[in-house]
Amino acid sequence: MTATDASPSRVADERPVVEMIGVTVEIEGRPVLHEVDLRLYPGEVHALMGGNGAGKSSLVKALTGAYRIGGGEVRIAGESVSLAGPGAAESAGIAAAFQDVDLCVNLSVAENVMIGHEERRWYGIAWGATRRRAVSVLEELGLGGLDPRSAVATLAPAMQQLVAIARAMVTHPKVLVLDEPTSSLDADEVATLFRALRRLRDQGVAILFVSHFLEQVYAISDRITVLRDGRGQGEYATRELDRAVLISKMIGKDLTELRRIGSERRAHRADPTGEPLYQAAGVGRRGEFAPTDLELHRGEIVGLGGLRGSGRSELGQLLAGVVRRDSGTIRVDGREAALPNPAAALRRRVAFASEDRRDGGIIEELSVRENIILALQGIRGWARPISRAERDALVDRFMESLAIVAPGPDAPARQLSGGNQQKVLLARWLATRPHVLVLDEPTRGVDIAAKVELQAVVAELAREGVAVVFISSELDEVVRLSDRIVILKDRRKIGEVSNGPGLSVDTIIEMIAADTDDDA
Known about the structure:
- There is one protein chain.
- This protein is 34% helix and 24% strand.
- The chain is an alpha/beta fold.
- It has three domains: 3-256, Rossmann fold, CATH 3.40.50.300; 275-349 and 435-442 and 465-520, P-loop containing nucleotide triphosphate hydrolases (Rossmann fold, 3-Layer(aba) Sandwich); 351-433, 3-Layer(aba) Sandwich (Rossmann fold), CATH 3.40.50.
- The strands form five sheets. It has a six-stranded mixed β-sheet, with helices on both faces.
- The radius of gyration is 25 Å and the shape is globular.
C-alpha cells in the first residue's frame, strides 16, 4: 500500500461535508480543545494525527456529539448545526466505529450490523428482511461472502472491525469516523480493512481516520490535520508532508530524542558480570512454550525478538508467574522462587505489565490514583492500608516523572488517552519497586510522542538497576533498547545475541528465516 492509493486532491471550490471552525471543548472546567479547525470532504480519507493527549479523542467525541462544544461552529454542507448528542450527530449524517470493537459476540453478523435498525413489521422484527438488508450493507463494503448468520465470536479481529464499520454504515452516513481501527490488526488484516475503506471513499463517504501508525496514514489518507496540546498545528496534503516534519509537528521537537535514547543505551551496554538477579532454567509449559533458559542481570534490558506467533507474550507470562509453568526452575536473588501466580511474583519483586491495558491492566472505572496504588496495596494486604500522605506522594511523583496527562489524580482512568493509560499501568508496577519488570508491548497502540517518553522511562529504569524484559512486535524498538536479545520462533528460543553496532532488525529477521526444525 502506498500513498498513491489515495483519492485525487480536492478542488478549491468543492464544499466540505463537515466544517469545524474554532471549536473549543472543556471537560470539568479544563480546556481540552482550543479553537480547532477541521474540514472533511466527500470521497476523501482525512487522517487526524497528534501526540499523546493532543486532543484527538476529544475532537472525535465533539464531532460525534459525545462532548459538548463550548465555542466555535460546526457546519454540515454549509449549514450551521448543533451536535447536542450522539443522536443529533447521527441525524446529521455522522457515524463512528471505535478502537475497542463494541460488538455483541454472542449474536450473529446480521444481528450486530442491524442492531437498533432492525426491519420491523406489525408482529415484531422481520428477521428475513433484516438479514437481507445486512447483506446489502456488507456487499457495499465488499463483504458479500461473509455469512450473515455466523456468530461474531468466530470472526478474526479484522472481520469484527469490518462488521462494526458495516453497523455504522447502515444509516448511509455522509461521514464515517474511525478511531484507531487497526490497533489490533496484522498487516494482512489491515489490507482487508483498507480495501473496504477505499470502496466507501469511492462511494463519496468522507472518512476521518484516527491512527498512530504513520505508514498506514500515508497509505490510506488524502489529507492530514495535526493536533498538539489541544491546538491545531495545520492541515496538509498527505503527499506533500514529509514524515519527519509530521512527527516534529506532533511532538513539538525533532527526532533527535529517539536517536539520543539509542545512543545512551549503546553507551550503557556492557557484558554482564556477577551472579544473575534472575535465572530461569528449563522453564516452559506444554503446548504453549518449549522449555527455555534465560538469565537477567541488574540494570540489563533483555529484549524478546520474534514475529507474530513466536511466543513473546507466552514466555513473558511464564517468567513472571502470570501463567503457571509445568517445567523448569526459577531463582531470584540466588534463591529458588516458585512464582505460581502474579501475587507471589510481586512478593519477590517480579512484576508483569500486560499488553492489553483494557482487559489485563487498567480498571477504567477507578481513578488514576486508585489504579496506580492498586498493586502496592495488594502486596501489603488490605489490613495495612497505604496512608494518605504516602499515597499522594507516590501518585504525584509518578504523574510528574512519567508526564501523565490527566484532569487530576481523581479523574477516572477511562478519561485518559491510550498512551496515558499505558503510563498509569507502568506507574502501578513501578510503585511496587520491582527488581525485575516484564514489559509486554508497553508502546503498543500509542503515538510516536508516547513511544519516545515510554522508551526513555525504560532506559532510565535500567540505569537505576532494574532488570527489564522488553517485549515488542516492533523490532526496531527491541534493537534500540536491549542489551541482549533472545530470538524466538514457533514458541521456542532459537538464539540469543548481544547488542552492538553490527546488530540490526535485518540481522534478527535473517536469524529467524535461517532457523530450521532439527526434526525436519
